[in-house]
Design brief:
four-stranded parallel beta sheet, 321 residues, 8 strands, single chain, 2 domains, Glutathione S-transferase Yfyf (Class Pi), Chain A, domain 2, 43% helix
Length: 321
């Protein structure tokens, strides 16, 4: 939220009305393979009267590649985005990608607990000619936190009028949304907080729009995204396990909230059918696409045509045209 903005009523249930306007860190994936997530996240925000202000001059968070070579440099790269957020006058930044969200949260933790990370951040920041980020000044939240806290289930239920009723959904959070647990101090804080052991924010939001969430045991299983280039066969097997388990649980749709996970599920669903002869019919959609259509937005507005596995026939059958 901008530090100098005036609070405005969102007519939601309790919620953080200050999250009506937040800094937005899309990260690299949402400008590439995850463009439909970017499109649908912005569209949902606009439909709900929320404003995303993109971080100026943002850079890659370091993802997995830099982290595996020099974790201190990766901490600096993420911290620089927090510095840029603060320079814009915001103390909250929303990162919808699990990898980006994870890395910004980890940078916050490392700069508060790791002297080596502090030294590297100060040294590289000085060389780059900008202030070194000081932990505690910017809060990083996920898209799930943003909608849960800024709007909430009661308001979503009112606005969506149960449009997802009858849709059976397996909510897939991926492995980086909750791990390692120590970098997410806001989770596991009792009633109202997210759980690292059994995440439920996506379940809550989609249920408020009428969806039926199936009991899905692989919510935080790894999709093999990090192995996609080095060992595609392993990734295919991991994804196939997720897909077949979702179908066995009765799901028609897997809802995602991470561009890497979403792309991995789509690619390896096709690969499993082509190479292994294992066809699965479960549809894969970003949770923001589902909420967007429940809010009355068109499939075009939320980027459904950009999904690799075309879900449009299924969506038409469900009345989401």
């Amino acid at each position: 939220m901008a530090k100098d903005m005036t609070e405005q009523d969102l007519t939601s249930d309790p919620k953080d009305k200050n999250l009506k306007q937040v800094a937005y860190y899309p990260g690299c994936a949402l400008e590439g393979t995850g463009h439909a997530y970017n499109r649908s996240t912005k569209a949902v925000g606009k439909a709900l009267g929320l404003e995303l202000v993109e971080v100026k001059d943002w850079n890659c968070c370091g993802a997995m590649e830099v982290k595996n070579i020099d974790p201190q440099v990766q901490t600096y790269l993420s911290a620089r985005n927090l510095t840029k957020t603060e320079e814009m006058g915001f103390d909250v930044v929303m990162a919808p990608c699990n990898g980006c969200y994870h890395n910004l949260k980890k940078a916050e933790y490392d700069l508060a607990h790791n002297p080596q990370a502090v030294e590297a951040n100060e040294r590289i920041s000085a060389k780059a000619g900008h202030p070194a980020y000081q932990p505690g000044r910017v809060e990083t939240i996920h898209a799930l936190d943003w909608l849960k806290r800024a709007v909430g289930e009661k308001e979503l239920a009112r606005r969506t009028a149960g449009k997802l009723k009858g849709m059976k959904i397996a909510n897939y959070y991926g492995c980086m949304y909750t791990r390692p647990r120590h970098i997410f101090p806001d989770k596991d804080q009792g009633a109202g907080s997210e759980s690292t052991h059994a995440p439920h924010f996506m379940d809550d939001l989609l249920a408020s729009a009428g969806a039926e969430n199936v009991d899905f045991p692989l919510k935080t299983a790894c999709c093999g995204g990090a192995h996609a280039m080095s060992d595609a066969d392993t990734s295919t097997q991991l994804v196939l396990n997720i897909l077949t388990t979702a179908e066995a649980c009765g799901a028609e749709v897997i809802a995602t909230e991470c561009p890497t996970c979403h792309t991995s599920l789509e690619i390896h669903q096709l690969r499993a059918e082509k190479l292994l002869g294992r066809k699965t019919n479960v549809k894969i959609l970003y949770f923001t696409q589902l909420l967007g259509m429940a809010l009355g937005l068109s499939q075009r507005k939320v980027g459904v045509a950009e999904n690799m596995a075309d879900p449009r026939v299924y969506l038409k059958e469900r009345g989401l045209r």
